[in-house]
Amino acid sequence: MPSYNALQQSDPLVYDAVIGEMQRQVEGVELIPSENYISAPVMEAMATVFNNKYSEGYPGKRYYGGQKYADIIEQLAIDRAKILFNAGNANVQPHAGAPANVATYFALLEPGDTVMGMDLSHGGHLTHGHPVTYITKIFNFVRYKMKDVETGEIDYDEMREVALRERPKLILAGFSAYPRELDYAKMKAIADEVGAYTMADMAHIAGLIAGKAARNPFDDGFDIITTTTHKTLRGPRGGMILTREEDLGKKINKSVFPGFQGGPIMQMIAAKAVAFAEAAKPEFQDYAKQIVVNAKHMANLFMENGAKLVTNGTDNHLMMIDCVTSWGMTGQEVETLFDDIGITLNKNMIADDPRKPMDPSGIRLGTPAVTTRGMKEVEMEQLTTFMLSAIKKKDNPSAIKDLHEEVKTFCNKFPVPGIDLKQLS
Ligand SMILES: Cc1ncc(COP(=O)(O)O)c(C=O)c1O
Fold this sequence. Notes:
CATH superfamily of the largest domain: Type I PLP-dependent aspartate aminotransferase-like (Major domain)
Bound molecules: pyridoxal-5'-phosphate
């Protein structure tokens, strides 16, 4: 870990906030399913002089000189990503997940074309066509949903009917709040029937796919995978677009640059390369499997204690709890209560939620970050006990304070990779 001496000297306000955030991450429990802790090598690669370099273009084809080392870095990231996900082409330049999705839409579609994605209250992401996003001014989005919220099964018959009627040019798989596996083969068959491309936005489960704890959509013939690199994949904040066929990758590359972005953020690409090498190691497969084991265990514990989970469980890293039905509390109330004991998660809409997005009925929580800290089933039991105790004692401020102290003591046993507070004192 860097000493941060120079930062402390030159800008104490920023330094204090950085140290405060480190403390928060070490002393608290992170259950937001889209968050994780990066390793020290990934963090070191981010904080490098590649920040100083402009590298518009691609390895071997740049618009600026001085690219010897930038080319090495980007090519490493590309080659490692291709192997990790069995892809024909990898574009590692998207600055984040949202630009990766938008660049993909522009690569494949004309204005006015139709895209079919998962209903947002059933787990889809904003970038899959939420009316507040600008992309809906350009493309037409239609939806599919779960057939049965008790099992989470997607209504593939309805999906086919809508596809035959609306003739989408692109069928989207992927989610940020759905706890089950999708049937990519069924989606691909529907797409083939209507001549649509298939795109899987695997932002949430990329690490599970890389670690072979979830199915790779390319194995069922999907054309494209978009992803973030900072969630289960445990890399730097950023995005990536993979194609099964090398040729389709040419369209994607043109769309990312010059179509959509300017210069790539090369220090993040260096960190992506490091993260992809880490994800290719056998121990990452153990990590990915443990994420799912932990999530299933925690979900079962909640259900045994009377909580109502959307789809009654999970197959991946996350779960959704209907707080109104479970505890007569809103998602916001539960988020705030758990924050008070040092456990962070987020309020979230549940399927067909009658409440508003800023004050929804549910919470979303998951196990990628706690699994990175080395927690296993027994710790999931402890964490669930902390949360259920908080619910029981919610009207007793001193009991909540005591619980917060217990959570801090518990966290001391599980160091966060890349953060060593002792080094700073
Ligand atoms: C499925 C999905 N796609 C895209 C994104 C957007 O990623 P970013 O926040 O990096 O733009 C997210 C972020 O939560 C996501 O869950």
